[in-house]
Amino acid sequence: MTPKQKLDEENQDKNTSLYVFPKGIPGFEQLREFQLQEHNELFSLFSAVEQPATIFITVNPFDFFKDYEFELSDDALEDIGITSQEQIAVRCICTWNSDQSKTTVNLLAPLIFNIEQQTGKQIVLQNTKYTIKHPLWNEIEFSKGGES
Predict the structure, then answer these.
(1) Rounded to whole angstroms, how far apart are CA atoms 22 and 31?
(2) Contact 48/34 with Cβ under 8 angstroms?
(3) Considering the chain, what is the average pLDDT of its residues?
(4) Who's near 6: CB < 8 A, 6+ residues apart?
C-alpha cells in the first residue's frame, strides 16, 4: 500500500459512520447495517453493509429546504434511543438524473440517525405536503450553477 492509498483509506474511515437500523428500511427490511459516508459538503452515500450494491445518494434536507420540518413520534424516538435533539441527524434519499434539473429528493420519508448510539430509522411522514419526488434544485439555485 502506498502512502497515498493509506491516507485515502484513513480519510474515508473518518468520513464514514456505521449505523444499525433495527427494522431495516422500507423495501429493504432484511438489511440492518448501513454505512453513511460523506461524499462532499452536500452529498453522502448511504449503503448496506450486507449488500454493498444497495447504495443511495443522500442529502441533509435542511441544506436545501430551510423551512423543512416535521415532528418525530415518541415511538420513533424510542425505537432508536433518542433522548435529546443533539443526537439527531437527518438525511433524505435523492433520485439522481443526468439532467441535474430533474434530480429529486424524497422529503416524505427521511432517514433519522441517532449519532451517539449509531442507530437509525426511516420514517414516513403523515398528513404532509412533502413528496417522494421533490425537485432538489430550485430554479434560482440551478440557474446559479448548483452543480456538485
Answers:
(1) 9
(2) yes
(3) 87
(4) none
CA distance 107 to 117: 24
Predicted pLDDT of residue 13 = 57
Query: Which residue pairs, CB below 8 angstroms and at least 24 apart, start in 140-145?
Result: 141/64, 142/100, 142/101
Strands (E) in 41-139, as ranges, are 43-48, 55-59, 88-95, 104-105, 111-114, 119-122, 134-135
Q: For residue range 73-129, what is the model confidence (pLDDT) as tens digits?
A: 999 999 999 999 999 999 999 999 999 889 999 999 999 999 999 999 999 999 999
What is the DSSP pairing of strand 111-114 with strand 88-95?
Answer: antiparallel
Cell 497515498 belongs to residue: 4
Cα separation, 47 vs 13, in Å, equals 14
Mean pLDDT of 29-40: 95
Q: Which of 68, 63, 52 is nearest to 16 (CA)?
A: 52
Alpha-carbon span 80 to 88, nearest angstrom: 10
Beta-bridge partners for 133: none
